[in-house]
Amino acid sequence: MVISAVRMIFLPLIALVIGVFFLGLARKVTARIHRRYGPPIYQPIIDIVKLVNQESISHGRIFDIGTILSLAGSIVLVLFIPFGGIAPLATSGDLLVVIYLMLLMPVGIALSGGEAANPNVSISISRKMMLALAYEVPFLFAVLAVMTYYKTTSLMEVVRAQQNSFWGAVYLPLPALAYFMILPAMLGIRPFDVVSAPQEIASGTAVEYGGKYLALTTIEHAIHTYIVVGLFVNLFLGGGNPFIFFVKMLIVFLIGLFINAVFPRLRIDQAIKYCWKWPTILGLAGLIIAYIVA
Q1: At what angle do helices 173-187 and 212-236 cross, to 10 degrees?
Q2: Residue 222 contacts by C-beta under 8 Å, 6 or more apart in sequence?
Q3: How far is the C-alpha of 82 from the C-alpha of 137, rounded, in Å?
Q4: Which long-range contacts (CB under 8 A, 24 or more apart) does 49-53 make?
Q5: How confident is the model at residue 253 (pLDDT cuts 50, 70, 90)?
């Protein structure tokens, strides 16, 4: 019981550290690709500490609840994602729970932003929900293909099966490719940064956040980054011990950063069309093949 409690506290902290590192790395790498020096990698830590000490303005109870719901959903979700074999809430059906919990983040943002009653926030929320609906379809096909092929709904069992054989990407290349193609959309980076779009809607939902609320949003974004990349590594790259797991996450995230740095932003209709075309086709084809092979 004590070990489980320590793991439940330790794992979200690890996810936060890795996520914050990735946020800082994203700004630095993107700047270097654009031939700028960029801020230090630890800049997100400075920003969070500074924001926590600033005055916060709430727009109402739903505004507070939405922010907390989004962060709480991400923290709970971390406990289902194996990190070096550590997954405190791992169960026989945790992949199904993961699918549902991933919806809490956009729902929390929608509740919080809706209370702010800002036109830019309203546009951002509508884009976020439409984008989530777009990438959830190929994401669901990819996860179902994994569950079908390995005949389990346990993420831990999927990781163990890969460690005793080849990576899931070898057996399930189409679902792996489908997940990777929607990875930037799930992370909210270019060409799918339509939700924030600073040049269009003043950073969207973030325009009404300040002080502790913006700090909590930054923390949630860091943890969400860890979840999306970590889930891909566990499903298709075999997980690994903490060091190997981190290296795999870093490589996947860096590839996403290169895409982010060179592609322009899509319109929301283009983003939806993209997600419902090739990633969905590949995910569905992979699911059918997994069913036949299994």
Answers
A1: 170
A2: 15, 16, 19, 20, 22, 23, 44
A3: 23
A4: 51/210, 51/211, 51/212, 51/214, 51/215, 51/218, 52/211, 52/212, 52/215
A5: very high
Task: Give 86's strand partners.
Answer: 83
Region of residue 56 (left: phi > 0; alpha: psi -120 to 50; beta: else): beta
Indicate the SS3 state at residue 83: strand
- What are the pLDDT digits (tens) for 1-50? 666 777 788 899 999 999 999 999 999 998 988 888 889 999 999 999 99
Separation of CA 195 from chain center: 14
The confidence score (pLDDT) of residue 224 equals 93
Q: What angle do CA 277, 281, 284 make, to 5 degrees?
A: 140
Surface-to-core class of residue 151, CB atoms within 10 Å of its CB (0-12 exposed, 13-18 middle, 19+ buried): exposed
Q: Which of 130, 131, 109, 106 is nearest to 121 (CA)?
A: 109
Which pair of structure tokens corresponds to residue 131? 């984008």
Show Cβ contacts of residue 37 under 8 Å, excluding neighbours closer than 6 positions.
31
288/130 Cα distance (integer angstroms): 26
Q: Are 137 and 280 in contact (CB under 8 A)?
A: yes
Helix, strand, coil percent values for the chain (each to nearest 5): 75, 0, 25
| DSSP 8-state symbol, 40 | -
Q: Which two tokens stand for residue 133?
A: 């609906």
C-alpha 24/C-alpha 43 separation (Å) is 6
What whole-number distance in Å separates Cα of residue 288 and Cα of residue 294? 10
